[in-house]
Amino acid sequence: MTENEIKAKLKEFICSTLGVEPDVLDYDTELFGENAIGLDSVDSLEIIAFVDGEYGIDMTGVGKEHFFNIDSIAAYITENK
Amino acid sequence: MKVAIVTGASRGIGRACAIRLAEDGYTVVINYSRSAEEADKVLEQIKAGGGDGMTYCCDVSDLAAVKQMIRDVDKTYGQIDLLVNNAGIVRDNFLLALNMEDLDRCMDLNVKGYFYCAQQAALKMFRRRQGVIINMSSVSGELALAGQSVYSATKGAVNSMTRVLAKELGAKGIRVNAVAPGFIETEMINALSDEKKEEYLKTVPLHRFGKAEEVAAVVSRLASDEFSYITGQVITMDGGISL
Ligand SMILES: NC(=O)c1ccc[n+]([C@@H]2O[C@H](COP(=O)([O-])OP(=O)(O)OC[C@H]3O[C@@H](n4cnc5c(N)ncnc54)[C@H](OP(=O)(O)O)[C@@H]3O)[C@@H](O)[C@H]2O)c1
After folding, report:
1. For the segment B215-240, what is each residue's pLDDT rounded down to a tens digit?
2. Strand partners, B132
3. Quick check: A58 contacting B, CB < 8 Å?
4. Among A58, A59, B69, B104, which residue has the least CB neighbours within 10 Å?
């Protein structure tokens, strides 16, 4: 699976499960924090569980910077495959 | 099929929990860190009773090893329904005689080990929006016994983490509870001198030590769907010591 396919899957998951509208979510959109699209820390757990289930990559305890946007999550997955 | 992991299940309370949960129909993972032969015997007994499971050697105070164990169990059985965080040690001493290696060891196993297993198991439970975590605490988490400051502190931490994790994980269908036994007849108690045993017995209104099977019965009920509205609780079962 290419990094772009991973990004598309992550976007699909975030929209369908976490209720984000697809048109406000680009791969470089900030996910968490004040200027972001309103995801909270519980949503980050959903992402951790999704990444574990889908790619077998463990993101428990991983630094916040890796959850900055879809680009950074996908990069982490690719690097740790 | 439901799958349960019991840490420290090669003897004592963990062993009784593993056997009882197998009787309840769980496929049971019997975790241990050194006592392979004893763990094998627990599995044999489970199989003789028509149950199923496996033994798994893993020091639960080692995060990398815990990650591997949970991954392997999930791969083998496809799900984890119940985690019983039970592996724990006691290193009693008075404050001024406290050996800092013992302090580290107790914190590493009784507290950090519980967090490691809870985190990794919850990660798998999250996906299915269901699961139960039961932490083996102790009446010492609330009761002040001289010489037990470290053990009490670790069990107090277990009680607190139980309540907070119940809050964090509740919306995901995961229940978290603790069982706080008093004196239970295991090697921990057998190692005491007769004098000490008699002294302890005097403090127990039921005037006997509890049995590991009695703790396992509470774990079994807490894990069951019948008790599905209980979360974040520490269930004390101590023959009345704490009254
Ligand atoms: N007995 C009591 O009266 C009593 C009362 C209240 C609460 N509790 C609590 O109940 C729990 C069990 O106590 P117990 O009396 O049944 O203990 P126990 O008879 O000493 O058994 C301890 C179990 O933990 C395992 N273990 C030890 N270190 C481990 C590690 N690093 N990783 C994985 N497993 C490990 C041991 O297996 P290995 O030999 O293979 O390491 C063994 O199976 C503890 O949390 C204890 O605090 C006991």
Report:
1. 999 999 999 999 999 999 999 999 99
2. B82, B175
3. yes
4. B104
